[in-house]
């Protein structure tokens, strides 16, 4: 490789899956320099738009703070590689989100200690702490805007000065809120004032689309139901994303996901079906269509096993829905996660399901990153 021109060597590496690139950079110093070359980053992203995704799985049982990458084969939806990610010593964490290959963590208990982790060089940065509020409930987001070239972390804090009780969460939605934002590279948080919407629901993993973070708001007795709320990372403004009239999105909570370069929503129906609505043109109410109907009665083999009693108290098991929609595979099938225990592909044409087993998959996991790859460009945030 050393005898090859830089452009040729980079072109060769850019055709490899991300797991192989991360392994290749450990061979020697010259290969490490090639793996961190910005040209390789640009070429890799331009060549993986039509390939199957890279997943990052977060596992907290039986050992806490475990991350694994999952790489699918290029020709079908089968798993090709499952590899662990070496993590530095950190407190028990939740994954706030991921973008451009960087992962954002927060401490599991107070959500006040925040870290940005670069898996390529196995390094993390602790972010400045922000002000604490009494009885606070925190919603977090992490994203990157392609125009400003800035990474930002947002904290939405609901708090009450009364003593917390069994109905504390409901009370927060009617009490005070504070929105704080941190631009990575800055030393302090900025306040954006109060959030003018109902309490947002913290998803298993945030939805970043077109430089905007998206959440679903809790229903309120004074309006018709849940809403999709976006936050533009460049303009730092919240906005309501329109939803279709007289649909299941109008009356139910739902999961947001990006499918085929479109913002989409998956919602459970009373008859056991999983409907997937797709917004073909962003922010255009009339462009929503009900694209998929998935039978919710399928049970993958991974769910037929008895639940370990010690895992029944896991935050993953307690907070996850039965089915999470993850992404579209390159063969047009939909990748699903079942109750933190199984990955399944669904063929919407044949209406068939296929379990995706692999001996390297953990018994319990939460998918926290879905993308073309993990980015190794560490210059954007000053590593």
From TrEMBL:
SUPFAM superfamilies noted in UniProt: F-box domain
Leader sequence residues: none
Pfam families: F-box-like, FBA_1
InterPro entries associated with the record: F-box-assoc_dom_typ1, F-box-assoc_interact_dom, F-box-like_dom_sf, F-box_dom, SCF_F-box_component
Ranges where the F-box domain occurs: 1-44
Top-level taxon: Eukaryota
Protein name, as recorded: F-box protein
Annotated organism of origin: Tripterygium wilfordii (Thunder God vine)
């Amino acid at each position: 490789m050393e005898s090859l021109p830089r452009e040729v060597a980079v072109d060769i590496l850019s055709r490899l899956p991300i797991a192989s690139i991360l392994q290749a950079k450990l061979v020697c110093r010259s290969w490490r320099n090639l793996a961190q070359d910005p040209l390789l980053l640009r070429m890799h992203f331009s060549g993986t738009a039509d390939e199957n995704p890279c997943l990052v799985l977060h596992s907290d049982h039986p050992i806490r703070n475990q991350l694994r990458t999952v790489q699918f084969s290029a020709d079908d939806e089968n798993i090709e590689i499952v590899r662990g990610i070496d993590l530095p010593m950190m407190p028990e964490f939740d994954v706030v989100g991921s973008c451009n290959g960087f992962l954002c963590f927060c401490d599991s208990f107070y959500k006040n200690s925040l870290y940005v982790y670069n898996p390529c060089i196995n390094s993390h940065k602790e972010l400045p702490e922000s002000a604490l509020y009494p009885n606070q409930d925190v919603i977090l987001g992490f994203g990157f805007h392609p125009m400003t070239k800035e990474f930002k972390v947002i904290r939405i804090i609901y708090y009450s000065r009364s003593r917390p009780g069994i109905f504390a969460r409901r009370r927060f939605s009617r009490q005070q809120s504070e929105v704080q934002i941190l631009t990575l590279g800055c030393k302090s948080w900025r306040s954006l004032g109060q959030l003018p919407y109902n309490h947002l629901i913290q998803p298993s993993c945030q939805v970043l689309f077109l430089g905007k973070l998206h959440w679903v708001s809790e229903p309120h007795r004074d309006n018709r139901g849940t809403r999709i709320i976006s936050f533009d990372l460049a303009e730092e403004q919240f906005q309501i994303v329109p939803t279709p009239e007289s649909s299941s999105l109008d009356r139910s909570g739902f999961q947001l996901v990006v499918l085929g370069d479109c913002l989409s929503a998956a919602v459970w129906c009373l008859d056991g079906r999983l409907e997937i609505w797709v917004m073909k043109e962003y922010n255009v109410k009339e462009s929503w269509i009900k694209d998929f109907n998935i039978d919710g009665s399928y049970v993958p083999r991974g769910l037929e096993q008895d639940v370990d009693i010690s895992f029944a108290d896991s935050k993953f098991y307690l907070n996850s829905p039965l089915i999470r929609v993850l992404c579209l595979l390159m063969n047009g099938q939909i990748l699903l996660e079942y109750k933190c225990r199984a990955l399944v592909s669904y063929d919407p044409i044949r209406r068939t399901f296929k379990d995706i087993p692999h001996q390297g998959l953990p018994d319990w996991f939460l998918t926290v990153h879905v993308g073309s790859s993990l980015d190794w460009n560490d210059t954007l945030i000053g590593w």
